[in-house]
């Protein structure tokens, strides 16, 4: 939301907060209640508020437990939403259910019923959600049909989706980083120097570049993982910063700041 720095008070525990990038407001995830706080706490589920913390409404209620002796809905352990705030996918680890919903009390649907490691994010057209499975592989689940599509990645960790949602990178346990096109499934290893290995890559804010660090240099690749440039970090003191549109990179060198 535009007022991401706003502080507001909600008289109930909240386990997660997400800003809606293109829409107005935030998603709030309320945890499972119990008999001791059922009268005062929010019912477990995902709520939405506007940019000023007003107009709270339930978007996706928590799952009811199978045991009739447990009357309180169970919380969602993780969730992702599209940029417009019109679609949401949430996961309940206890029930091993991945559920998709329209976002505003629309009908929800179970699209996957096995254990997963983490939710990664939506595809560019919001038709699929990417998930990291317990065996280290990555799959795309269709949010309408539940159809599963493997992205051909095995035994990876630390999966990072590009801002445009058309590519992702992940670290292999061998220390290499693999790049994947989320539409075609084409993958390749990102360049590294065995004598001066590049550390874990990250995406620049707009996804224009992949950025990795090596000894006294920063490696810049284009969005497709091809070499673009290198920047000396010999006198760098502190973390680099990017312009929001990825057009400029700022490096703090000693007491000065260099614009690259």
Oligomer state of the chains in this structure? single chain
Distance between the first and last residues' Cα: 30 Å
Largest sheet: 4 strands, antiparallel
List the total number of helices. Answer: 0
Instruction: Give helix and strand order, one letter per element, not per position.
Output: EEEEEEEEEEEEEEEEEEEEEEE
Report strand %. 35-45%
Radius of gyration: 21 Å
What is the tally of beta strands? 23
Measured as a percent range, the helix fraction is under 10%
Which of globular, elongated, flat, extended, rod-shaped describes the shape? Answer: globular
The largest sheet has its strands arranged as 1-2-3-4
Instruction: Output the structural class.
Output: mainly beta
Low-confidence stretches: none
- Average the pLDDT over all residues and give the rounded result: 85
Task: Explain how this protein is built.
The protein has 260 residues and is mostly beta strands. Helix content is 0%, strand content 43%. It contains no helices and 23 strands. A 4-stranded antiparallel β-sheet has the order 1-2-3-4, with no helix packed on it. Strands 5-6-7-8 form a 4-stranded antiparallel β-sheet, with no helix packed on it. Strand 13 (156-161) and strand 14 (167-172) form a beta hairpin. The chain is globular and about 60 Å long. It starts with 15 loop residues before the first strand and ends with a strand. The mean pLDDT is 85.
